Amino acid sequence: MYPGGQLRTQLERVAVAIAYGGAVLGLGLLPALFFRPAGQGCSRCPDNLVGIFNDPQAVQGLNRVGIQLGLVWALLLVVLLGWRLVRSRAATRRLIAPVAVPAIAYLSLVAWSFQHALARGFLSNDTLDRRLWLGQAAALVALALGVCWEWVRGQRVRSALARLVVELASSPRPGGLATALSRSLGDSSLTLLYPLPDGRRVDGSGRPAEPEKGRAVTPLVRGGQPVALLVHRHGLLDDPGLVDEIATAARLVLNNERLQAEVRARLEDLRASRARIVERGDAERRRLERDLHDGAQQRVVSLALSLRLAQLGAEANTDVAVLEEAEAEVRQGLAELRALAHGLYPAALVEEGLGAAFQALAEQESSPLSVGRLPQGHVESRVEAAAYFVVAETLKRSRPRRATVNAARADGRLVVEIDRQLPEELTDLEDRVGALDGRLLVQAAPQSGTRIRAELPCA
Amino acid sequence: MRVVVADDEVLLREGLARLLIEAGFEVVGKAGDPDQLLATIRHTRPEVAIVDIKMPPTHTDEGLVAAEEIRRRDPSVGVLVLSHYLESRYAMRLLQQHPERVGYLLKERISDIAVLTDAVRRVAEGECVIDPTIVSRLMARRRDTTPLDQLTDRERDVLALMAEGHSNQSICNQLFLSPKTVEAHVSHIFSKLGLRDASGYHRRVLAILAFLRAIDG
Question: Which of residues 337-366 of A touch B (CB under 8 A)?
């Protein structure tokens, strides 16, 4: 049945069988066997060549059966079509209505004709019959128009697909498939999602995404596996053939984009894992810094106090001298502990942010650093930490010549620059910056020769 | 002189108290956290409270917060904050709150009786005390050109002492100079650095520290 062209249920098959059977046997062939025009008093009528013998009773009986069967199949088909129309989804209903409604009208008129003929016992052509024929003809014309409309619609879909193919050939950039599809299908809200092997769904750029609520989702299936999900407005892809055709037309691009999305998602996973590693490292550094302050340093200060108290109680000069020496050592140790703690993770970075941390770095013993421009406000602490360590480590690794650090925020990035001789080892700093999706650049600088520039995305 | 000692580390607190007693101070109270400290001060009315910067509950800057509260409740009580941090920003914060009768001393100095007693006495007398290491590090920062270059060596000595919180009289004593000479140095320094002569001694310390932190080559 329309539009598939196949009878799907037993009932449909029965109805069509009755229609053919009733019309061919009940009303056509069998009565003809028993009808002799001459026997009916029409001497000038040509003889019925298939007529076996004249039996008006049999003709009448067969006609009646044929008409009854006609009534049955016509009504059955009306009910079936109506049922299908009512039971379909709104979109499918829209699709089949131009054909189904004229068909129902036609079949109803046919049923009416049979009903009208039932009392009479044979088909004839009285006034009502003629009017019904006119109505049936009109319904058939409408049916034909409906089929034409469907054909035009199909053409439009095909030309949309053709546009899609052309567009795909010319725009292979990532995420371009969704744009091409939305343009060629005429749904600007259309998006494409790709299911990953681990069950997540990502968009063309590899970012996790889920279909919005209340939107239609059509899977594009290849080899029994959904390779992509089309998220679109309801009714856009109700033509069952269209989805397959899209999947076929876009196969290459679809595969390409799906693989790219998968790779991007993997890269994002890696980046996130790298960021977590750096963050864990920083958290550990912070913890060590605190432990040094609250534990070791306190103990050593106590020790210095004890030594001093022992000096006060000591009687022999030699004892005092030894104790003084010990105290001096302890104090030296304290200074080293303090420098170590500061190098691990400066408290200023946690408490007041990048500006204070640079300032503290510049205040360090014989620090070559001057603090130049600084950004207003704060950015995320992990971004500030990365910026800080790029500068602190660069200073540590190159010759102690003066350097100025400048930091600024622009276009959603924190940019930190320091002019230094190029350190030999930068990999760990590149890792740290890369973990935040940033870049570490080494550029030529007018005076010092090298400018180290970190660009860090920040909210 | 009546003092109160606050530190959450018992060994350190007791050691410090003993040292202060040896040095002739009267330790009228000891505390392990800010609440205890404030209560002790209310009861004992000391001249100076010696407070560790890190105390419970968070072990970050409770000492600074407590110092502000002590100064707010009773401006006659001086506060000497002891810290492991050799950073000028904490000292600045302390000065910005109530720039008199406060001091910021590195914790590792407390075993040096002379430094400790001098700091406590100066705070009790109403001066500010900024750890000399912090000042010398600020002065020693490498800069290409700086207004500090215009100062004579003597003037730099005077500037450092001013930044450490010494009064003119105290500077006279330290450098063996006459009050007139010190006054002349001070006014030269202010005009050379382009600093407006901050009204009053306490504002002067703050202004100089802010200046030293801000200049860059």
Answer: 338, 341-342, 347-348, 351-352, 356, 359-360, 362-366
